[in-house]
Amino acid sequence: MARLFEVAHRLEARVEAALGAVGLSLAKFGVLKVLAEAGDSLPLSQLAERIQCVRSNITQLVDRLEADGLVRRLDDPDDRRVVRAALTQAGRDSFGEGIRIVAAQERAVTEALGQSDAAALNGALRQL
Amino acid sequence: MARLFEVAHRLEARVEAALGAVGLSLAKFGVLKVLAEAGDSLPLSQLAERIQCVRSNITQLVDRLEADGLVRRLDDPDDRRVVRAALTQAGRDSFGEGIRIVAAQERAVTEALGQSDAAALNGALRQL
DNA sequence: TCTGCATAGTTTATCTATGAACAAATCGAC
DNA sequence: GTCGATTTGTTCATAGATAAACTATGCAGA
Q1: pLDDT digits (tens, 9 = 90+) for A80-106
Q2: What angle do CA A15, B120, A9 make, to 5 degrees?
Q3: Which domains are seen in chain B, by residue range?
Q4: Distance D21 C1' – B69 CA (angstroms)
Q5: Which residues of A touch B51 (CB under 8 A)?
Q6: A25, A70, B11, B78: which has the fewest C-beta neighbours closer than 10 Å?
Q7: What is d(CA B32, CA B27) in angstroms, rounded to the nearest whole number?
Q8: Separation between Cα atoms, residue A107 and residue B1, nearest integer Å
Q9: Which DSSP category does A128 fall into?
């Protein structure tokens, strides 16, 4: 388990560093990804649910993304409690760059592992 | 890779929650473990090195551990720049409880995996 | 309709982690 | 022996995450 944690942390740090080149972090990239895949604005609660974190985290993350100009907050016309997050054009562009970077890292890892180990890893992780 | 991160985070959260029962966190347990295994007090720099984090993180971690009464700071007689961290008796006791908890979590994971998957996981992780 | 409860988002406090800037102490080259 | 570079720990600012307390809004039942 120690090894699992250590490897995960090291890979996360690597992806984080790679994303840093375009001003993104893993957390920010995660939000952009959810919004891009939804293809539409989403209530902050749904963002929290899909990212699997508490709402107060999303508040701050969206604060920073809004400051970066990658996302903006919209009022929900149907429920005045709700705040929706929407990608800006800069956000869509940034996500495009991010996904290339992450894909490259993914390839590097799969390559380092070799097919059989990659499959084994995947299978084992599925049990957990 | 997404799966690896997700599983690692979930397991970490589980261990963290289990350790919470005795007032520990993974970070605090990590410090206690290094000190216990060293069998002696250690300079904060060495703590940082073994835990693989920056020194300012150790400063704060040791602040909190000292507040918890698990660790205390000692002056180094040979180098007045150095601050050493030493386990208190409460710290040794707490580490003992922690290690039982972590071992139980470890067993639960290995059991959930089965021998072959556990070995496969270990082998794959070793490549990374 | 009003009342009480649930939901949405924010604020605040805390923890973990990083990096930059800093003070004090040590060490090496001259 | 002194000066400059290095090392050690701390402080501060920031990012990311959680949990608790709070506000505003919506909704369901008496």
Answers
A1: 999 999 999 999 999 999 999 999 999
A2: 25
A3: 27-93 (1.10.10.10)
A4: 29
A5: none
A6: B78
A7: 9
A8: 10
A9: -
